[in-house]
Write a structure and sequence with these properties.
Layout lengths: L6 E3 L9 H8 L5 E4 L3 H10 L6 H6 L5 H11 L23 H19 L6 E6 L6 H10 L4 E5 L6 H9 L4 E4 L12 E4 L16 E6 L2 H10 L7 E4 L32 H5 L5 E4 L5 H9 L4 E4 L1 H4 L8 H13 L4 E4 L9 E4 L8 H6 L11 E4 L5 E4 L5 H6 L13 H7 L39 H39 L2
Parallel strand pairs: 1-10, 2-3, 3-4, 4-7, 7-8, 8-9, 9-10
Antiparallel strand pairs: 5-6, 11-12, 13-14
């Protein structure tokens, strides 16, 4: 696999780990990763904001089809930006057969993000997708590969069918992806398909196949992927329950401690010895954002670590300034708190959230929001009585969800992560009555420990300072290994000397 990164920066939220952060990390020689969530919506909104620095338009000028790039500019770009109180022009929701304009926007959005993350250096960058967000996968991955993405990371599901997609796209061949559909019956064939040459019928050279790193939380899943994936798996990210974002539910019955936190047991701990025996590199994630944890991971046989929270609050992350400032203040004051909300995510996965007054973690803020589903990334596919595919979400309007056969017990406490995650990077939708979508910021449990990166009097810290701090653990591990090898060599020489002197 060549030289592997010691540090992989997490692909967080929708745009929190954007191209600026990924570029900063990859420029150091480690692996910067952009989030692949809702990039079509983010591109459309950045253009409507006016693209003041011109970065998006710079990337668009390098897209292989200028005809497509100009269509997107013509539809969404507003010179000088939209009025502050004006709503963003909506982007259609994805479906099994989306309109051509949405597919083009999705391809281009992923291209732009990777192109900008790669610009100005020669190191690989990665992109992180959620398997459960299945509908945009095919167009998204193709756009990222057009821009030369080096790694595809994917969690929140079992991505058995991704390797064949990567293989097909190397030569711009068609691909398909099966959809999970609630209530599907034998004989149903629910899937999305994509033929690159229907959108870019150009003389394009073959693409490089990115390395594929599934995000796992168990040895069983690692073995399943190796045995049943329809192509090559290049390694694993092993994510523990203290990591931010969606966490795998505990194996067995879900139990809670006195603070309402989910209890994980021995069955949820990955056996690293068994993982090493699989012969693929792996990185440990969830609470590994400190030099000593990097050294610990390397000593355990890992290629390195994945770190999210420390980078999420760095100067290069796109987390909106108010939330970032409040969280850094909480860290300084020792009041930072992250809770696992088992109800927040429409996916049903436990979801880590930082406690912020203006966010949906505040019951008063949550109570004011009128349920609206207009982005739709986390909707669940279900089979209708007529045998067709439709979509629903337990965070959408109650009457709409129930009319689609949704389980009423799934509704209480659900939050619209789609709108909240986009609000987290300062682009909340403005409603007709003046209401603005609130935030819901996810962080890992390591939030309380990022004070290690804050110097006295400093307002923040850079991504490169996080890398320097973490790599001290890698250097310590190298020294320890070197010393151990030296001791072993000395012992071997002494044994040889004794053997030689023996009668």
């Amino acid at each position: 696999m060549g030289i592997l990164p010691v540090v992989i920066q997490g692909g967080m939220g929708a745009g929190v780990s954007g191209w600026r952060l990924a570029r900063a990390v990859s420029s150091t020689g480690q692996l910067g990763v952009v989030s692949g969530t809702a990039l079509d919506v983010l591109l459309a909104r950045r253009l409507q904001e006016g693209d003041a620095a011109g970065d998006v338009r710079f990337a668009l000028r390098h897209f292989p089809s200028q005809e497509i790039a100009q269509r997107i500019l013509g539809k969404y770009f507003i010179d000088g930006g939209k009025a502050a109180d004006a709503p963003y022009r909506p982007v259609p929701m994805h479906s099994a057969k989306p309109c051509r304009a949405l597919i083009e926007l999705t391809i281009v959005a992923n291209f732009v993000e990777i192109f900008l993350a790669r610009h100005g250096h020669n190191h690989p960058v990665g992109i992180n997708y959620l398997e459960k967000l299945q509908l945009p996968h095919l167009a998204s991955i193709y756009g990222a590969m057009l821009a030369g993405v080096g790694y595809i990371l994917m969690g929140a599901g079992i991505p058995l069918k991704i390797p064949a997609v990567l293989d097909a796209y190397v030569n711009h061949q068609p691909a398909e992806y099966p959809l999970y559909v609630s209530g599907a019956m034998d004989g149903d064939d629910f899937k999305v398909t994509f033929n690159p040459r229907e959108y870019l019928d150009l003389d394009l050279r073959p693409l490089s196949r990115p390395k594929f790193l599934p995000i796992i939380a168990s040895n069983v899943l690692a073995m399943t992927l190796i045995k049943k994936a329809n192509g090559r798996v290049d390694g694993f990210i092993v994510e523990g329950p203290t990591a931010g974002g969606h966490n795998a539910p505990p194996r067995g019955k879900m139990l809670f401690d006195s603070d309402g936190e989910v209890i994980y047991g021995e069955r949820d701990v990955v056996d690293l010895e068994k993982l090493r025996a699989l012969g693929l590199p792996f990185w440990l994630a969830g609470g590994y954002g400190a030099p000593e944890k990097v050294a610990e991971a390397l000593a355990a046989g890992a290629a390195g670590v994945q770190v999210g929270t420390a980078f999420a609050l760095s100067q290069e992350s796109d987390l909106e300034p108010q939330s970032k400032h409040e969280l850094l203040d909480q860290v300084r004051q020792g009041t930072a708190k992250v809770l696992t909300d088992t109800l927040a995510s429409p996916t049903g996965f436990p979801f880590k959230v930082a406690q912020l007054n203006a966010s949906l973690t505040n019951p008063a803020v949550y109570a004011k929001r009128v349920r609206t589903c207009d982005l739709g990334f986390l909707r669940e596919g279900y089979r209708t009585a007529e045998g067709k595919l439709d979509f629903r979400c337990p965070a959408e309007q109650e009457n709409v969800y129930l009319a689609k056969g949704g389980d009423p017990e799934m509704m209480p406490g659900r939050k619209c992560l789609c709108n909240a995650l986009v609000s987290n990077i300062g682009m909340p939708q403005a409603r007709a009555d003046g209401y603005r979508e609130p935030t819901l910021v996810t962080m890992g449990n390591d939030l309380t420990g990022i004070g290690r990166f804050l110097r006295d009097g400093a307002e923040g810290y850079s991504a490169s300072s996080v890398i320097r701090n973490l790599m001290r653990g890698a250097e310590h591990a190298r020294v320890t290994i070197t010393e151990a090898e030296s001791d072993l060599s000395s012992m071997s020489q002494a044994c040889e000397a004794v053997s030689t002197e023996a009668p």
